[in-house]
Amino acid sequence: MKNIARRSVAPVIAGLVLALGACAQGSATKTDNAPATAGGPVTIRYMNFSANGGHEKDLDAIKAAFEKANPSIKVQVETTPYDAYFTKLQTAVAGGTAGDTFELNYENFVTYTKSGALAELSGVDAAAYKPSLLEAFQADGKQYGLPESFSNVVLFFNKDLFKAAGVAEPTADWTWKDEQAAAAKLTDKAKKVWGDYQPISFFEFYKALAQSGGEFLNSDKTASTFNSAAGKQAAAFLVGKAGKTMPTEADGAGTPDFDSKLFKSGKLAMWHTGIWLFSGMADAPFAWDVVVEPGNAKKASAMFTNGVVVSSQSKNKEAAQKWVSYLTSSDVMTDLRLKTSWELPPVADEAKLASYLKAGKPANRQAVFDSLDATVLPPVVERQQELQDAVTKELTAAAAGRKAVDQALADAQKAVDALLK
Amino acid sequence: MTATTHGAPKAVATTRHTRGAGSRGRAWRNRGWVLFFLAPSAVPLLLFTAVPMISSIWVSLHDWNLISAMRWVGLDNYTDLLTDEQTREVFLHTLLYCAGYLPLVYVGGLGLALALNQRMPARAFFRAAYFLPVVTSWVVVALVWKWLLNPSNGLVNTILGALGLPEPGWWTDPTWALPAVILSSAWKDLGFVMVIMLAGLQAIPSDVVEAATVDGAGPWQRFWRITLPLLSPSTFFVVVISLINGFQVFDQVYVMTGGGPQGASQVVVGQVYDLTFRYGRAGEASALSWILFAVILLITAVQIRGQKRWVHHA
Amino acid sequence: MPDQLTLAPPPAPSPAVPPPAPAAISTARRRWGALTLLRYAAVLAGAVVMLFPFLWTVVTSITPEGSLADGPRLWVEDPTTAAYGTLLETLPMWRILLNSFWIAVVSTLLQLVTGTMAAYGFARLTFRGKNVVFALYLATLMVPLQVLVVPLFIEMKVLNLQDTYMALLAPSIASAFGVFLLKQAVESVPRELDEAATIDGAGHLRIFATIIVPLIRPALATVAVFAFMGSWNSFLWPLVVIRSPEFMTLPLGLSTLHGQFTTEWDVVMAGSVFSIVPIAIVYLLAQRHIIAGVAHSGLK
Questions:
Q1: Whether C205 contacts C116, CB under 8 Å
Q2: In this structure, are A163 and A226 located in the same domain?
Q3: What value of ipTM does the predicted structure carry?
Q4: Over the stretch A281-295, which tens digit does the pLDDT of each residue have?
Q5: What pLDDT score does C20 carry?
Q6: Which of A6, A8, A12, A13 is most worth mutating to test chain C (most C CB atoms within 10 A of its CB)?
Q7: Residues B42, B172: one domain?
Q8: Contact: B174, A25; criterion CB under 8 Å
Q9: Which of B154, C70, C112, C131 is deepest in the core (most CB within 10 A)?
Q10: How many alpha carbons lie under 13 Å from residue A290 in its C-beta half-sphere?
């Protein structure tokens, strides 16, 4: 009786509308979307979030270059801010009107693959991409998306504060212990100067876990394994900072732009954050630099990647794939991303990235590439958002002192396991 | 619906001539008028609210993450929700919200209306000032409120601190997150109640008040015995609408606390939103909305039934 | 309900100020004087609390690199309109404002027409099942929009209305809230007026147009403000149903100012000013009718 598959709610709505329409004379419904016209240029829609907030023109430039190279294809770009993007995208998919191509961050990729919303890509030029990134957008051995960009997290530090406190600047060999010791010396609550900042969240936790040598999920993703010795170390490391060397929620942490304002005002010595903030900090009124994040049992740097996919609803999959290939591997894209600090291009040929090293502050941009030697992507499951929220919620409770760290970790594991069933 | 267009003009034309005609003709004519006056609102409400509502019942019987095909689960979503601890919590928070919000906004709005019903300098300015928050978007003002109630350096805590009063953690403290939302909501909607009550106050014939004064009633007695009872239709409207809206509180929670900390301020519609758009559980979200619907309907029905006892119609 | 008074001669402005008995005049006056002062002080203090967040919004928008995070600062050393410049540069503000304004005006007019007619139907016509129909109207207010958005979106696709002005307007052609408020107002108009008109040979249409509508002007103004505001501030529905930038409404435009990682708060606040000012003007225009209008629209 159960499990009778129903495709969608559309027939029900159509039925109701028709029933209402029957009362009125004539039909209210018009013809369905016109099919793609033969011969003329094909229009491909592309929904994205990452161009919002300053890179709209850069995306337009890539689009223009693509259209020039492919006169028979037009691209219609629809940019939505990140906060609202997934609401819009999901509704569009539900209504069968998603763009031919759209952007997905790695964390959401699995949900969309498992739901059958993506078209498989064939004949991908694998050599063009960094292999680990290309793999990230595979499922069951099939390519369902192409990596579009990536960025990672490094340790920002305020050189002036280190100098003033007489503490040696961080190096690539630093471990948690070095970081903790320096943070304690740098924190000066009387002057409202904090030694360290790192959000207490799922994203920092999975990374700290990897740095401690732990695993988040078992190999077949049927159960979580983070409530381990390594997990406890990671959670204790994060939670232990709160209030000691790092501002707490009650100090305002977690509000929009709290950390970037704090760093920029010269009141934060060390800051774990993404390279996307380089340009925002370029005009900070003090000397600063970056370094590979300190490790624990080993090094592990957080990496984020966005990909582009072709919708299984697209009527022009071939043209759509041409666009996503261009968007992810063309030299035009590579140059533009490097020039405008729009994350990093996913290209395999690292020689192409050379100009990034000289693109301005910070001096040690090499750390960005050094971090890539040991990166860790977030664990992803079908019910990703719930998993992230559950872990963040428990860790936040521990940081606010409402729960013991061990208890929070055990509760998080229980919640996550329930999501994996 | 066809009758809408045809029925009306005919009825207009025949009104005069057929007065006093058979009751059947009158009944048909009446029906034409009912359609004429109701159809312009009934058709769009049916088409653009009722159809999605009924469709959402269909959705509520499925497991659906919006991006995959729907899977029939029957009443499972409802039974799951009704036994879920979290459902109980979000309903409790919503109820607490209403319980805190309604008295605050009603008493405040009424007091304001009483004060601003009297002549005073710059009265129009004050009325506009108190109404301004009502018309602005939560997205705009919730951000400002979030900063006003900032536990560490917000203005509210700065003032409380200067007065030697305790400084609550507001949205970082599970105990205070909901009160923070209630406070800012009352701030925003005070002007709404004020406007409705002002209109009601002006509708009170002054001779009634004067007669009571002549009979020796003091201001306090006049308020309880005359003003308040005569305001009862306005009160009724405010209470019904505030509860319908209050049970669906969402925007301010979403922008100010995001339902946190630790879900301490999560409300029913916040949960509906999360389930639909963040967690891919649209079926459960629809089911939860229908449970909410049942609650609001019950409360509204009780009020409408009970209005005869205390609402004085002109 | 807001309008029974139209029948009474323009009411004495304050029911709470009684004509005092001659003997008590001097003491009463002194007592009332102190009370009035107290009341005035309270109203003034309240108004400051009401307006403060708006003041802060404006101040932040003219502060160089303004940020809410720094706490309230009501004095700006070197005010700048740079944020407004950035705003006009990043967004086609005039087009966006025009869109929002046009949609808000049309949906307000539609709601006034559909709402007043329905209100008359409920208040003045008798028909079987009236209470049930009214309850059904109210029921449309009881399911949150968040859960209706997806089915409504699919319906728009069925009707082939996606990405059109019509789709933006669809959910706000009629509102049960407006019907409820207007129904209360119509009910407060004494039936004797209708009856007198009927004797003069007026039908429903004439009673509706010449007696009811003029007498419920305050309620109409109130509904107009709420309808305008609902459309002006609506975010979720335009977000999902619109994809062409030429249909972009103000809340959608302003949301693009929030970056994934960083946000320029001065620009966001400048955007907020753009969103608040027009609607404040709409209210100020309507306020005359909502309250003072009552005295003018008395019996003709």
A1: no
A2: yes
A3: 0.87
A4: 988 999 999 999 999
A5: 45
A6: A13
A7: no
A8: no
A9: B154
A10: 31
